[in-house]
Amino acid sequence: MKATLGQIRKIVELVETVSQEQVQRALESGSLIRALRDVAVTTYHLTVDSSSISDLLKAGGYDWANDGITEWNFPTTEYDMVEEKETALFHFNRTISSEDAIAGMRAEGYRPATMRELLTFGKENPEVQRKFPIVALGQVVRLDGARHVGYLDRDGSGRCARLHYFDDGWSGDCRFLAVCN
Predict the structure, then answer these.
(1) pLDDT in tens, 166-177
(2) pTM above 0.85, yes or no
(3) For the chain, does the N or the C end have fewer beta carbons within 10 angstroms?
(4) How far is it, in rounded angstroms, from Cα 159 to Cα 128?
């Protein structure tokens, strides 16, 4: 979600009411950046459970899924505990490498999502991937000598769970699913 013109005007009005020193302190503490991120980033709450990758693919109702999206290739991680998680979709609005996207998420106090978190997101928010691709950079699998990560996308009116090369970079329309640390 992008900030609306009205939201941007409100931010400018608020900044104009405080001293330059107060703005500087807020920037140094990160509080202003967090506040601005909260205006421009949509957050979602997920309940990640112990479902297997194949169960999540079925529950998500995907019209197509890459054969490489398996429990073997994407095993349960320490992050995949059964719990409620706050997630966000990061939109960098430019072509970006996987490494730069991860650095951007980490700078904001988030980590990249795992495959299980991505599939849970798709199950709980099935229409979001019809708007733009959603990428999970938190688990990388090596297949046929190349590194791959999962992403959700559309194909016409259908929903797909796909794999893409980690090292190829991402177009400006992609969103990156991240979990709050």
Answers:
(1) 999 999 999 999
(2) no
(3) C
(4) 10
